[in-house]
Amino acid sequence: MTAPAWPHCDLPPSLSAERRGEIALLRLSRPEKRNAMNLDVVLGIEKFFDFLPDDVRAVVIHGQGDHFSAGLDLSELTERNASDSMHHSRHWHRAFEKIEFGRTPVVSVLHGAVVGGGLELAASTHIRVAEKSAFYALPEGIRGIFVGGGGSVRISRLVGASRMQEMMLTGRTYGAEEGLGFALSHYVVENGEGLARGIALAERAAKNTPMTNFAIVQALPRIAQADPDAGLLMEAMISAIASSDPAATARLIDFLEKRAAKVTHN
Prior knowledge:
about 270 residues; 2-enoyl-CoA Hydratase, Chain A, domain 1; Lyase 2-enoyl-coa Hydratase, Chain  A, domain 2; three-stranded mixed sheet; globular
């Protein structure tokens, strides 16, 4: 059965989207190509986030078939000159910035190949749920190319420049559980259970106040990159704005009057 068209914007056939309450699901739908991403896919991702409805509070990105994404569709590189390649890379940058610095938290559900550009896409999301089948790789070095979808910034931030060099120089792969050690995976679940966990986490994040989620998505990574003095000043300002939101005030009162659950650890 074909999924109904996404009513908010036109998406290419290689993408499909649906609503589940306050959550939107975006699916990479090129299983015959291991969900390799061509320019149509990248521009479709950008458009999806540009026209995301205001009442969507979180997004889940996942892949159809056996793999999340095998990365860049290499057939697109065969006839490009340097100028074309540079502009192509900038399309990826703009699309993935809409994820990393968008209005809502974004969860990626990873399985099978999370390779090259697929890993760059995953690194732009805020929460990564990996099924045990997931594996990470950056084969650009052995392909004679270089990352172009923001990986040199985002992935090196996660794993460190040294490990990223090793992955690119040797083509080494890391499994889902190995990825826990350097935040490529945040959660590891059994095969077939990733989407349900990803939706549950998105629903949990959607319950936060919009201002708090905006601060976490927009301000926190910028504070982390700022010099300490500027970062502390920005933190104080964002903290003041977030705590003055009426929704935050109501939640604090609920907690103080013992109507809110306390944090526990099982």
